[in-house]
Fold each of these.
Amino acid sequence: METGAVPRRGKTAGEDGLHAVRWLYERAGDALAAERQRWLLWLPVCFGLGIAGYFSAATEPPLWAGPLGALASLLALAVCRRFPLRRFVIAAVLVTALGFAVAQVRSALVEAPRLKGNWGPATLSGQVLSVEQRARGWRFLLRPEAMAGLSATELPAVVRVTAHRIEGELRPGSWVELRARLRAPSAPTMPGAFDFARKAYFERIGGIGFALGPVSLQPAPQDPAAEGARGLPERWSLFWAAARQTIAEGVSALLPGQSGAVAVALITGQRGAITEETREAMRAAGLAHLLAISGLHMGLVSGILFYVLRAALALSPGLALFHPIKKWAAVAAGLGAFVYLCLVGATIPAQRAFIMVGIVLLAVLLDRRAISLRLVAWAALLVLLFSPESLVSASFQLSFAAVVALVASYEAWDRRGRAAAGERGWTQRLAIYVLGIALTSLIAILATSAFAAFHFQRLAVFGLLANLIAVPLTAFVIMPAAVLGLALMPFGLEALGFLPMGWGIELLLAVATTVAGLPAALVQVPPMPLWGLSLVVFGGLWLCLWQGRWRFWGILPILLGACSPAAFDPPDLLVSGDGRLVALRDAERRLWLADLRASRFVIDSWRRGSFSAEVRNWNSGPAPPGGALTCDPQGCLYRRAGAVAAISLDPRGIGDDCARADVLVSLEPLRRQPCRGPALVIDRFDLWRRGGHAVWLGPEGPRATSVREVQGLRPWSSFPEEKR
């Protein structure tokens, strides 16, 4: 062999590798250039990626970070105008930086004073902003005017109060005085759980709590300057809150019980009067989406108005032949949709649905095609622009996941020539309609399953069966009757609409109860990790937004993400942030607690978050299998996987626990009693400083994660190290 052969072979291999990279680069550039018309669809995706980057930061980024990144990307974009692939990537970075900056600005704009801890019992007075009747009592938002012990600059912008006794008729705009006990919005119950503090921050809620005793109405203060300073937005909000309450009271008077509670939810968006039993039946039947105002409701309201008005105008030949009655009906339907949006409180799914309905009706006015993924992209971008915090909410994710999948499926079907089917008989049309509902429900279920596993850790097995009955019932009976009742309400004839609506809802609840009673109707699944959900989202977007064959590569990350719950490692020990609740999880998926009468919300969150099948009291019944649990008045010892965890309830037993435990959880501070034996010590001071903890036991040693590590030190967190 010649001596020069080896170097030449290596050089050839290097050239081949470089050629392969260049070939892939050119193919990717060609594919992107071929899908130029679809680039716009990735605009909200990149914008949302920037928002996600902001919310995933461990500390609050400086305000210049987002604008600086956008400026740098803009300069790079100007340099690389001739390279399609580079231009696409840099444009994506630019939009991502803009999303990051918008989230920063929004966070700064909504910042308001919050309670730093517990407040009260003390006297509170202020103006009611909204009222919602619940299964027991009322819950209302209040703008405080005076709170004992707090100065005017320390008053929260809004507080949320639950009351059981009200003296008089409480309405939005009323001035009240009450004695209450409030606290700061709660941090997540465990690492990775729902962050209510973040949600409350963007709603400017600085305290939540309960009224102690009755809520008494007070005369409005005579201060015209303060009244004028509130401005049009607040008066607009109070007007619709009052209208919402009036309609809810009228519906409840005609439809008592749960049928009335569901009717109120469908008309006004207020779901407080729906009992937990009804909610659970709807969840188990896969019908919970019907209780949240979304595209189905908004589309039905606008569609009913459009077709009824158009049919009424068509009765006049002069109007039908010489005037654009279709466009007149579209304008009226748009106004009706806007009224419905205001009535239901403009929730995130309702905003998305209204934007899409508005663009569809605008397309009717302009004689353009209505339904497309561009419509969905613009709707998503507008929602994220004005409410970037909605990106991390379950409602936004579930809503847009279902819509993107459905519209992408519709476009794929439309490209294959749906119009070529020709005329069909009524039996064929009925069969196609039923098949369409089934296919639509199946696509929506598949598109939202990953989000349901991530947020709620459960899946409805028979959701397709229930939706085959519930969706036509809602479309043809419940919502048309609701529109009729609302239209007749000013004339006192609302019973003509609301009573049939109630009959339809009773049938809907019967369907939900029947399906929920089937064996294994609601299956608990392990929590999906964030990286798994990210893979599913990326793969789903890749599959739906592109049109070429390369879109099928999105199936791979979807499958990988769908398998991610199999890697879930449940914690062995959970401790609440207030130090009042400790739970142990055994190998049989049972969660053991000292007191089952503690917060139901925390216990249910722990059960789902740890993938536990049941909850038991360790003070009664057999000890957890797979380990040994021994308790005395001073605390408990739990042995599992070769490790010992001690839960100290009395400081006098700290010495013994320190000597024999690998993990020590003390509900008292240990500052004055150093404990150097265990590998991991969690005391009351750690809980106050870092929030709730999750602990894993194993032969390699214990490890722990706190709420603060996951939540970070952000404007909505309330840990003592946070600096503002």
Amino acid sequence: MKNIRNFVIIAHVDHGKSTLADRFLEVTKTVEMRKMKAQYLDQLELERERGITIKMAPVRMRYEHKGTNYILNLIDTPGHSDFSYEVSRSLNAVEGAVLLVDATQGIQAQTLANHRLAKAAGLTVVGALNKVDFFKDSAGNINLDDERLFTLRKSLAELIGVDEKEIHHISGKTGDGVRELLDDVIEKVPPPQKSVEAFGRALIFDSFFDDHKGVVASIRMFDGEITGEDEIVMVATNTHSRIKEIGYFMPQLIALPVSEKLTAGEIGYVATGIRDPEKIKIGDTVLVSKNIRDAERFALHGYKEAMPVVFVSFYPEESDNYEALTRGLQKLKLNDSALHIEPDQNEVLGRGFKVGFLGRLHFEITAERLRREFKVETVNTFPSVLYRVKRGNDWLTIVKPEELPQDFDEIWEPIIKLDIILPNEYLSNVIALQRAFRFSDLHTETLGDRVHLITQMPLAELVSDFDDQLKSSTKGMASFSYEVLEYEKADVVRVDILVSHEVIPGLSRFLPREVATREARKMVDRLKEHLPRQQWTQPIQAQAEGKIVAREDIPALRKDVTGYLYGGDRSRKMKLWKKQQRGKKNLEARAQVQIAPEVFKELLKR
């Protein structure tokens, strides 16, 4: 165990984690140069295209340092707030972390959030400034005395609590300083502690589905050992299984012979053979089950369910694609246990699914994968959050406004803590967003040449257009991270949209009372713009708390039924006009309100 080092790379989005991981693979010769490609550990096409890590990736490397051979287990983690729970589980699987900061962008919101998680997990943190090749002088040497680099180095050292000399200057692009950083990780990050229990015990920090092996769990061994012939139990779900295969990530799966085993301190995988991904939970404890009673007593600390916080209903754009949508979501669910999927029905759009996500990015990634990988075009409802509704002595949880009971007493909504880091000159612009996005408990701190703004905000505001508004008000120079705190009583109202006096399912929304009328008018105007005219007048109304707060009318199409008449008594025309009026009333009485999917999709755009 003394020659094992387990560590992660943590950073804000797009600060160069995956590029640094590439250089580590090269330095340790884990991957042959002829097989290397950029962002080697990012296997999804979408990860490469967006330049972000979506799925964490572990890899086992061998490296010689001062004449001693070491086993280095690296986990490349996602950088976005949506995946903070998965990041926290990976931090519990290691003893050290490389905190990476882009020297051209400085300390960002997720830098602070990841550092807090690392310190809470008791990790040894090694700081590194990336992309320092940007500061090279005309002779090709890095100018470490550059004022911006000096200020950032000082801020990062203060954040970690180390001397400025201990901050590394590297370039993931050119490889400068990478070997020295890896050497420092070996010297500073402690080896795994000795095993406490005699039996095998491990933490599941990730999982994915394999058609032949079933659910494959990425594990960190804490105690004892696991062999390829053991029977194991997953504590949280009380699921028993006989192992099909164990092995290492190199980074491809390398199976171990039956005679070999994973021992305390190592990171590897276990092919469980289980076909139901619901049985494997991220953060759960795996025990070698022979002679183990009361398995719950031996669970490792920190497990909790990864709870979805954003809910969106998906419907196929073409009703014939329902089965394709079903298959696509089922396959995504196999490799993404955080997805929460339930069947749903909409009178306009037909059958679909209500899907729960970890955040807005998680939703956008899933929708894009459905379109690219499974060729399914979808119509999505407004993103919503989980509300708690008090009715008498009972509490209900609802997502869709249509689920709100008539006799409710109170509505409570989830609140988040929001960390925003931005240049000082844009602070007033962001504070100006306070009313629109319902900020509360706003505080500011100086962070070098930047401002750290800390506030609280309803989660519902985050999943609307907060990201876009923040970028617009700071010219893209701000970053943010968030964590869900608790529920608070909300002053929100349900707003329904009616066409020809019928409520249109899927267009109902919860809105803050003070903006409900304004937003309702916008929706009514957009609906009038996109709905086709009919033979009768169509009233479009927005209703809140039993009152009509906005209305527009789409006038009826007019056909001249008397055009062929000439001369004669006017009473002949009157007869035809009255007959036309009766026909329109009959049509209106029999007609059902129908909104084409393309119109519905246009209305749901932000």
Amino acid sequence: MQDKNSGLKMPVQYIKGVGPKRAELLNKVGLRTVEDILYNLPRRYEDRSQFTPISKAVIGEYHTLQGQVLTFGLKKTRRGMSIFQAAIDDGTGVIHAMWFNRPFIKKYFKVGQKIILYGKVDRHEVMAINQPEYEILDEDKDFDESAHIGRIVPIYPLTKELNQRFIRALTKVTVERYSRSLSEALPTRLRARNRLVDIRFAINNIHFPYSNEGLKRAYRRIVFEEFFILQCAIALKKKDAKVEEGLSHRTEGELVNAFKKSIPFELTKGQREAIAHIEADMKSPRPMNRLLEGDVGSGKTIVASYALILTVQSGYQGVIMAPTEILAEQHCLTLSQFLMPLGVNVSLLVSGVPLETKDKIKREIKSGEIDIVIGTHALIQEDVEFKRLGLCVIDEQHKFGVTQRDILRKKGLNPDCLVMTATPIPRTLALTVYGDLDISIIREMPEGRRPITTYWVEEEKRSEAYNFIKEQVKEGRQAYIVSPRIQAAEEMFERLKKEAFADLKLGLIHGGLNSEDKDRVMGDFKKGRIDVLVSTVVIEVGIDVPNATVMLIEEAEKFGLSQLHQLRGRIGRGEHDSYCILLANPATDEGRKRLQAITETVDGFAIAEEDLEIRGPGEFFGTRQHGLPEIRFGSIVADMEIMEQARKEAFELIKADPGLNAPEHALLKQNLYSRFKATADLIHVG
């Protein structure tokens, strides 16, 4: 994160006490240089600064104790285990410190030595402290010189080969010797405005804080810098996108008027606002880069249809790219119903289309005969050429890599771009992941959507859940049963067919089936020829069967909150009440917390906040599928206030000095491009 100072870039091998073998172990976990050690932040802290008299130590609790060595000795158990034991006296009482299978430490002990211990107090025949952290003090050694005891102690992420004591001692040496080599990347005035400590104080106190207040100030400084550099990258990306010359669309005309009249329902407030935003964007000669965010079933497709009509009316072609063939087919069906009666030519291009038909579609796309094409990854093949591409719509965009979206956009000359997601994104994450996009949010649901009641039941109530499904089927309804894996779904299908649902009509669908078989199964389910559809998450998006009122999710604890919410959105689409049953016996508190959260609300935005807090964000400006940011320090949920202040400062700085050419911004510029150099060519991708 700093300049290429020789001290900071020095290999870890040359730090005192490391050497080639330990350097190799450090390299394996990404610790290659002095700088890497300085920025390898603790995952938590233990306050070992308060000493407890031995007489006041509580069995079962962790304490920091100090005293003198009375006696010590080594003994072996019948099973061959060695126990080194030392009796420690502090004047109020005696405690026996025990270390198992560590006979070599005997050579470090002498009677009368001063020692500090930290660990969990237990009772065997005598009061004891097992496997404690310890520090033997020289006569003239100050407690503050210790890295392990008598202070607020850092706890680092570890591997089997690297123990806590070694990492802590290495970090202390590195901080003491090399933190003075750190250079200040944040401008002085910015630090003063935001009351941020300098980087040297921050690094010293993030590792070995002298007080809780010092730790808080250090944490705020390091997290602020992380968010600030990230937001500078986003601000530059947004600035660059705005200066590109794009296409200007006509927002008035016969085709758009005919489309408005053909809509068979009243648009919600959120839909009307989103359409107004899109009209303004598409009328402008600058490329539209807009995110349309809305919960499952909130009506994003009709808004996208409006944008597509605008591009066709203006003489351009439109494209929708979806992550699955099922979703692409669903979009094609919906758009064909709305647009083909208006004379708009809609076509589907997916890998499952026969080769002869596929070639014909590609020729018609190139000639301009097809106005709107809907497809999957098949759309980004080299031989798919557009005559005049005016609008790209990317649905469930987090399922695509950044590179795939970029390839699609480059098939036109700076076409407008609308990306959609049915996974509501918390504001903090939206500002980070989509800071370069303008955002429209549809919060309310269209009238007529039935409520969905969600239950969490444990394995022993499985038969009751099955009986409930049978009752719903008797009333003419249909159900989904979802398994997390293909093999589990296949086994479930065979078992249910022979046992619990032997008298019902069952179907099976998963990602391992070919397109033809998937279409056949879904067609049968929609027509009511299947009562219960056993599935994997292939039905997560794009399935619309109004008569399906029950969703039973097997091993629900294995799914993320947002994914559970997406699956639940497949029901509640008709005139009947709907029910989601989560079958799970979670082994962890986190699993129980997740299931409790999904049963308590159907608000996708509240669920997304909870999901983000549990799972955390991923990589940013990179090519990983979800495209989420790599936040190394801090939390975009817990540190929202720091994030928003950093964002404000970053956007103001880029507005004032877009090239970062001022002398005081030189190191910031270097850090910015160093951080994102591997994916710099993707910074223009919406």
